[in-house]
Specification:
single chain; 2 strands
């Protein structure tokens, strides 16, 4: 029972982070057409599963880790680069939305085994 409530709290936190990323995207007056077009682009990293679960998990986790978009966000601010800011915010929004839906980083054993839960 406690685990279920905890998952709901974690999902709510990531949903709020997703909404915050939309707010910042809007604040910078970026095109929402690009936001919609590119929101699901990080899921291309799932193609690694064509080879096997080990490569699939590696590619997926690279595409769904907060590290790269956070670095791009910092670089975007430091260099005042609109494209870097747009890409990083969209990428972060994607990760936050995935996590809000319960899709976490993958373990090598199977696609449905994540750091958040086992997906049914």
């Amino acid at each position: 029972m406690v685990i279920i409530k905890l998952r709901k709290i974690i999902s709510l936190e990531y949903l709020i982070a997703f909404l915050v990323s939309i707010f910042f995207y809007w604040h910078f007056d970026f095109s929402f057409l690009y936001f919609v077009l590119f929101l699901l682009l990080p899921d291309i990293s799932m193609l690694g599963y064509i080879l096997n679960t080990k490569v699939g998990a590696l590619f997926y986790n690279i595409g769904h880790s907060l590290v790269m978009p956070a670095i791009l966000l910092i670089l975007g601010f430091v260099t005042v680069s609109t494209p870097l800011l747009m890409v990083s915010i969209i990428w972060l929004a994607h990760i936050f939305l995935d996590r809000a839906l319960g899709y976490g980083l993958k373990y090598e054993v199977a696609f449905n085994k994540t750091h958040l839960q086992q997906i049914a």
